[in-house]
């Protein structure tokens, strides 16, 4: 079935849902029933054409709405604006648009109560409908789950389970339902290939305070991990057998994950058990990387830095004629593939030239694919999954002399980037306070950006990971061992985009907590107005490029090495 036919069929199916159930509307999310950011099933794209990683649509009888955050407003307008009213959260909420007490249908497998309460509250009659689109294709994926050696993971499964059980006993929790695949991957030292860009295994588990584990997944994928997990008290069960398992369990207290436990699953659990906690403790445990994980991340970033530096030398010195965004993506990928430890991208590469750079999470396709022009800025956001680390880096590049205005803005973004990198974390405490520091230079002249300054990053896991982050609404205390991005930016619609992103980890140096750079790739000095930098900022930039040179230069050829040395 071609894309257009599929969209028409899904639209018809939604209209039929609304009419046959006497509804006023229907909600369709982007996610699948595993609530991952990057899933192979994307309901939203199938019908709205919106390709972003987060959002949801509301279909009414007379009008359709698409809700996205600030990263995707321009993108959503371009991809879906003709047929959908684009609403930016948190400035516009469903409650601001919809009439009270209207009946809205939703799939209880695809929503959590936390999400529904956040967006709709008590003002609407939400009707659960367990409906599956006939036009939806099942993804054929036969990649088996696999185990990480403790020497790679840095901690044994038994120790991790022991830490989890101790938390459960302190909180008087009898059972924990872990519905997030990335958390299970961390706990059991396993990985998979169920997602496009993350080594995540789609699975769910129930673990008891007696360390009994019930593992729900596709049974064809578990043979390899059965052997490595044989010493555990673990039963491997079908994905659909959660209800049967719950029936057999004795009454007790449950902990669930409010972020990934669906309305349907929570209803099953609450029917028999008392839910006393809605925060999966693994999020916090996972956020603190051990020494081995940090070491693997450092090594991965050196390999990634080699590839990116070689690419940057190539593109800064090549003829731009007929060089398109898609060709740039493929060329960068070709440099990464030269590493024996490179596996695949950690997300779809963003190569936005000129006005496309202003689309924060832009992705080129056959319709938008621009030729790179000499006067364009190129915003390049990319990353890789390596054995055994995850990278994410953004560089903004120019190919001719730029205006003082562009230099001024780029330098203000750089000043914000350096301010974050130089933060005394014990004083700042959390990402909310650091976010203010990042925006200060831009805010002083009335400029800003509509995304967070940084997100948490997994160790050979998801490129976006919580609870740690640097944003206006993140108050999580930052601790030693956390990995985050540092990526302030600025975007002028229909003109250009600027972003500078490094990954960092939090390191204890004497009595201080400081950010240590993971990313090893040069920053384009042709875009910097050095008169705007103070002595500390200049020293930081010198030291950063000196570190890049020391780590990367042994792997470069003569010309690449000479070019990199000039940037110090």
Name the features:
568 residues; alpha+beta; Creatine Amidinohydrolase, Chain A, domain 1; Creatine Amidinohydrolase; 3 domains; 6-stranded mixed beta sheet; 19 helices; 27 strands; 35% helix; globular
Please tell me about this protein's structure.
The chain is of the alpha+beta class. The protein folds into three domains: 3-128, Creatinase/prolidase N-terminal domain (Creatine Amidinohydrolase, Chain A, domain 1, 3-Layer(aba) Sandwich); 146-286, 3-Layer(aba) Sandwich (Creatine Amidinohydrolase, Chain A, domain 1); 288-539, Alpha-Beta Complex (Creatine Amidinohydrolase). The strands form eight sheets. Strands 4-3-2-1-5-6 form a six-stranded mixed beta sheet. The longest helix has 27 residues, at 291-317. The chain starts with a helix and ends with a helix. The mean pLDDT is 94.
Task: Please give a quick description of this structure.
The chain is α+β, with helices and mostly antiparallel strands and 568 residues long. The model has no long low-confidence stretch (mean pLDDT 94).
Q: How do the helices and strands line up, and which of them pair or pack?
A:
Layout (H helix, E strand, L loop, with lengths): L2 H18 L4 E5 L13 H6 L7 E5 L3 E6 L3 H8 L4 E5 L4 H4 L5 E4 L6 H8 L4 E4 L17 E2 L2 H4 L3 H14 L4 E4 L2 H8 L1 E2 L12 E5 L4 E5 L5 H6 L5 E5 L3 H7 L4 E3 L7 H10 L1 E4 L4 H6 L3 H27 L7 H12 L5 E4 L4 E4 L23 E6 L1 E3 L2 E2 L2 E6 L5 H18 L3 H4 L2 H13 L10 E3 L8 E6 L12 E4 L2 E4 L3 E4 L2 E8 L2 E6 L17 H18 L5 H8 L3
Parallel strand pairs: 1-5, 3-4, 5-6, 8-13, 11-12, 13-14
Antiparallel strand pairs: 1-2, 2-3, 7-9, 8-10, 10-11, 15-18, 16-17, 17-20, 18-19, 21-22, 23-26, 24-25, 26-27
